[in-house]
Design goal:
The chain is mostly helical. The chain contains four helices and no strands. It is globular. The two termini are 28 Å apart.
Amino acid sequence: MIANDNNFIACLCEKGLELPAPENVFPDRNLGCYGSLQGDMAFWLDICWRPFSDSLTGDEEIHYLK
């Protein structure tokens, strides 16, 4: 998403939205075959998961993973 409205972005951040799982992003993929995380899965990991994971505090990450 591209936006230049800081109020809108702040509102989204306050919602505490969760990242969609890779099986929801790529429903046509057999995720059991992605041991090396290449292609679409690498894109999901780099663009979706890492920024989301890096934004969590230690307690938030533990709660999310549970």
